[in-house]
Amino acid sequence: MSAAPPGGRRRRWRGDTLALRLFLLMWAALVLSHVAAWSTVRLLAGPPPGAFESTRPPPRAGDEARRPPPRGEPPTPTFPSLPPPLPGGLWVIDYGVRFVIIALAAWWGSRWLAQPVTRLVGAAERLGPALAQGRQPAPLDERHGTAEVRSAATVFNRMAQQLREVFEGRGLMMAAISHDLRTPLTRLRMRLETTPLEAQFQRRSVADLAEMNALIDAVLEVFRGSAGGAAPQQVDVAALLQALVDDRAEQGEPVALRPGPEGAAPTVLATEPLALRRIVDNLVGNALRYAGATEVVLQATAEAVEVQVLDRGPGIPEADLAAVMQPFVRLESSRNRATGGAGLGLFIARELAQRLGGALTLGPRAGGGLQAVLRLPRRP
């Protein structure tokens, strides 16, 4: 690694850099602390004894004052007298003043140093929602601050612009997938249905095309789910779950809702209703597919609202709980292609839960089966 040229070092020290500002701040704090401590102690101690008294008579006019010492006696050198030592209490005041000034300088300097980092954190927090809603992220100021702060702002703004271009390109890719893949699949299905073929071959071919269409739908749902949604609004989670269970019951599916105890915390939560319904609907559909029946449990506390989807199906081995949350993962021991699905339901539910600021966890249910827990913290 080559060393930086001397000219580059000089430019860094001459420019408005963080190192130069820290150096000047600490130097000024040390000088100010010494001056303030010395002035305070001298003011409290008063003048030294005899400061206003003469220790010897003034010399007489004429040559008497300049007369040399007697012969044979060496001249006696004279030195200025040292100031008297400070009393013990003044030493405490001296160090106390220095400590207070240096501590104040360090406190102010730390807050001053944290300001650019705070602005960077705020910009990073606003970047995600802006990209999700298709808005231009607010840029950081690249003209003010030290050289390091300006450089970080430039890099962040460039990164935000690149991410925005990636998100826009992904939207175009979604439209291309929807059009360019569905069109030939539709033509193939029409040919298979209109061409005289063996019934079993025709049926299997149409089923394969339907599975490919379902896979495309699942992939597009992943893209739509991570692209952001509507602004949060106050949602009664109990009413939303009841409506979902009623819709399933109308289709003859065995889904039960167990609400929280009487007098518990309110179930109203600031969230996205469509995203929340998609999460629970995916979990309920997953449980019905592999267990045949499911139960939805709602629990609310002062900190969060928790939705549990319970089933008595074959469950998932604990070693595979993390893997099954990944896209296109299906456990053939308990879940196979005959049950349908592309291995994206749990992945979509987890992504939506994270977008809502919550978490989705899976675990074995006591007595057998699977327990999916969606926890949504209350927003301030």
From TrEMBL:
Residue ranges occupied by any Histidine kinase domain in the UniProt entry: 176-380
SMART domains: HAMP, HATPase_c, HisKA
Alphabetically ordered keywords of this record: ATP-binding, Cell inner membrane, Cell membrane, Kinase, Membrane, Nucleotide-binding, Phosphoprotein, Transferase, Transmembrane, Transmembrane helix, Two-component regulatory system
Residue span(s) of domain HAMP: 111-168
Record's keyword annotation contains Nucleotide-binding: yes
Region Disordered: start-end pairs: 48-82
Top-level taxon in the UniProt lineage: Bacteria
TM region(s), chain numbering: 18-38
Name used for this protein in its record: histidine kinase
Record organism: Rubrivivax rivuli
